[in-house]
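Researcher: Re-running this chain for the archive, since the previous output was lost when a drive failed. Same request as before.
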Amino acid sequence: MPNLNTAQIVCTGCGDKLQITLKTHATGGRGATSVTPFSIAQRYVGMTEIPGSNHNPQILSMLRLDMEWPKGDEVPWCSAFTNYVAWLLRLPRSKSLRARSWLNVGAHVTQETAEVGYDVVILQRGTGQQPGPDIINAPGHVGFFAGFDGGKVMLLGGNQGDQVSVSSYSASRILGIRRLV
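Model: Regenerated structure tokens:
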């Protein structure tokens, strides 16, 4: 029978605290937390770019998992981080550095049924009129769903303030939510 444990995540952008619930299963008298993309991504919180001519080798590895052109960590790497976590768990992934490429991965999930664990959120990025989810070749952002807080969606993702962090975004920017199954 699953037990419920809670964890607290702090948004690096606004400092808000988000309470999440993790399901655990008793095994031999010890609790074992289910391994999900979200739980793996949490281990990277705080990993940052290195400013200047030096680069974070972990971020470079993530960027070069599917593309050879990135020479440094000062490029958009949110999709590289999401791909890397999915790759570690042998889950479907976009194999692209474009954030909107995740709109073609996994199964569609509504905002009402989104869950912490296997869900990724794809957002519009930029100002002014942005294309809808049918346009993949446009600016975007992707990260692991960490919950809703009023009109905000919380994402655990890479390249959020040049690091892996939990940040909040207006829910009106959501292009899609996909479950990695």
